[in-house]
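It is worth pausing here to work through a concrete case rather than discussing structure prediction in the abstract. The textbook approach is simple: state the sequence, then state the predicted structure, then interpret. We follow exactly that order.
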Amino acid sequence: MNSMKILNILILSISTMISSNSLANEVRARDFGIPFSGATGKYNAITDVNGVKVGYSTIIEGNGKLEVGKGPIRTGVTAILPRGKNFNPVFSGIFSLNGNGEMTGSQWVQESGFLETPILITNTHSVGVVRDSTISWMIDNNLISPLKDDLFWLLPVVTETWDGILNDINGMHVKKEHVYHALNSAKSGVIKEGNVGGGTGMNLFNFKGGTGTSSRILDKKDGGYTVGVLVQGNFGFRDDLIISGIQIGKEIQDITPIYYGDKKKIKDAGSIIAVVATDAPLAPHQLEKIAKRVSLGLAKVGGVARNTSGEEGVQYSVSR
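Step two, the predicted structure:
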């Protein structure tokens, strides 16, 4: 297998998702004729990798001036189940380009080379409740190792980006029931993009950001493997945005998002989380190499890893 082909496909997939930020039943970037390279899977989504399921819980309430504890609320939870609702660990690797962010469970993934839990994405201040609720959900559904009985530990992978411009982030509105809904509703096939799940309150290049997904398939002579990516994007200045090699951000200066928080406090903040799945039979150290290539895909759309931005990626293989 030509591993460089997988790396190149990953970069192509990452670099197109900024333009794919719409609901699944709406027009996507390719429908506008934007020339992206590579062959996509059936859904052009992370769910093109067999067995992968994605679920969301979206919380949208209130308008007007921000009042802590009341809203407006624009947040949620995204859940990615590598092999569905089963305890079925997969080889995994993690890479952080710029670590101004949180990813629970990452130490054990790096140490063991395994991903043993779902991956969840939410807002910065809700990581704790999402982690604890994921443990409860896994226990409730008996998704624990049969080898360890009651001594088995759970270290869920929960990561985040900051939605405090559009969301009452200090109001702690994400609850246990939202985590359960995201996990229980996870499905394969067509999934929503944009203003859903953990991506609900995101800003991206001073446009409305959110959740994006994409996939690419290698040629048969290179193994025919699938690479799928899901991101939660929340970074970048308008002038930085590049789409298909064109500095489009410099050309669009008259569209600005609504801000509920104090946008004057935001200088170079913002982050992006990328989850990469593949059915290629790769070992943990190879998966870490692929996770590093997320950074190149971000650079192709104008990402520069500013100081208060967290760019982190987790990569796993569902091959058996």
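Step three, interpretation. The mean pLDDT is 86. The domain at 33-310 is CATH 3.60.70.12 (L-amino peptidase D-ALA esterase/amidase).
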